[in-house]
Amino acid sequence: MKGIFVGTKPSYKVIIGRGALTQVGSLIKSVTDDIQKVLVVTDSNIAPLYLDKLRKSLEIAKIEVYEYVFDAGERSKNIDSITGMWGVMAENGFTRTDAVVTLGGGVACDMGGFAAATFLRGIRVF
Fold first, then answer.
1. DSSP SS3 for 20
2. Is residue 34 within 8 Å of residue 45, measured between CB atoms?
3. Residues near 9 by Cβ (< 8 Å), separated by ≥ 6?
4. pLDDT exceeds 90 at position 13
5. Half-sphere exposure of 24 (CA within 13 A, CB side)
6. Is the predicted pLDDT of residue 18 greater than 90, yes or no?
7. Angle at 75 between CA 69 and CA 76, to 5 degrees
8. Cα(28)–Cα(45) distance, rounded to whole angstroms?
9. Which of 111, 125, 126 is nearest to 73 (CA)?
10. CA-CA distance, 64 to 94, in Å (whole number)?
11. pLDDT by residue (tens digit) across 28-72?
12. CATH 3.30.360.10 fits 21-125, yes or no
């Protein structure tokens, strides 16, 4: 796997490589080992292809996995989807040491990032 630093302020590292998805759990634990739970946010097109691999990687790292799968497309970018994510996190006792992991493209990242930023005044997002 290769790491590329994105030159924004603050900068961040993007991991690229074959098999990277199967290592997400250990990569998250290498950054912070206090995460107990994650909410994976993804769409109905991506979930059947990659969600099981991601779930397994997180579970191997001893991270509880919850998921929010929405209908693919921009029309799902709405407050009902966000409240659905907040609901999953609230019902499962998420704290500020837990996180949201987005799987997929723009809509998943936009909504997952927003839900993470606004839940409990902000939790981590990967």
1. helix
2. no
3. none
4. no
5. 23
6. no
7. 25
8. 24
9. 111
10. 11
11. 998 888 999 999 999 999 999 999 999 999 999 999 999 999 999
12. no
- Strands of 124-125's sheet in order across: 64-70, 37-43, 99-103, 124-125
DSSP string, 97-119: T-EEEEESSHHHHHHHHHHHHHG
Q: Which two tokens stand for residue 123?
A: 């939790």
What distance in Å separates the CA atoms of residue 79 and residue 85, rounded to the nearest whole number? 10
Q: Are strands 12-16 and 99-103 parallel, antiparallel or unpaired?
A: unpaired
Cα–Cα distance between 69 and 71 in angstroms, integer?
A: 7
Residue 39: predicted pLDDT = 98
Report CA 113 to chain centroid distance, whole Å.
8
């930023």: which residue's tokens?
Answer: 117
Which stretch of DSSP H or E encloses residue 125?
strand 124-125
User: What amino acid occupies position 107?
Assistant: V
Say which residue the tokens 């302020």 belong to: 9
The domain locations on the chain are: 21-125
